[in-house]
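Let's study a protein:

___
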Amino acid sequence: MKKNVVIAYMFLLPWLFGFFGLVLGPMISSLYLSFTRFDLMNPPKWIGLLNYQQMFSDQRFWDAVHVTLTFVFIAVPTQLVAALLVALLLNRGMRGIGIYRTVYYLPSLLGGSVAIALLWKNLFGFDGLVNQVLAFFDIAGKGWVSHPDYALNTLIILATWQFGASMVIFLAGLKQIPTELYEAASVDGASNMRRFFKITLPLLSPVIFFNLVIELIKSIQVFTSSYIVSEGTGGPINSTLFYTLYLYQKGFSHFEMGYASAMAWVLVIVLGTMTAILFVTSKYWVYYEDGGKL
């Protein structure tokens, strides 16, 4: 028995080293630094809650919070709706489904890359493809990524376009719904819309919940697209100043590592709180085949 335990821990050693050395250790260090003034050049100086007090009176901090929450509350629902609609189409058993699945998943696979962000910046640039298409129809183009009224919308479109991962998960969930339920509903004269709301959505709710949590966490941590499109500035009038971008600016441009660490811990707390709220409220809308709830 002891030999099996030793062998098990030997297999776990690489993960344990990674967890304590690359996750837990840096987290504890950043928690300490959040109460200090630290510029990477001089030793940290303890200042207590001053970083947090300055943060909540910092207008750029609140601009970053506003931009991030706006992005999350628009991009996440639109992405999930797009993913579900495409999954429903692919679930109809069409020919070449593997090709369609790959094509729709590819943008999600490349989603966090610098190349995709650069492509998007060029597409929506003043001389980009979008304005060229509009010019073909005699429609005046705009500076989509340079105008404060449109810059954030381009990033929301980019996030929505990258629905592939959620779509694949939705498709797997749809495959698990028993066809007998649809057949019984058809015999009872239920319309397609009624079957969708009474069978598909309730039985797919655990998958919807999973995708919602994952996309919420991912959207709050968006960085690459904002950094590339705005060239690290946060865009016109801070219109694309995401929370993580401002955190990066504070830590690696202004060398205010203590302030950046405090921002990181606020982000952790907010993420944990929002995720906890989703888990608490899920008992009212997440159902399983046996009729139980989460």
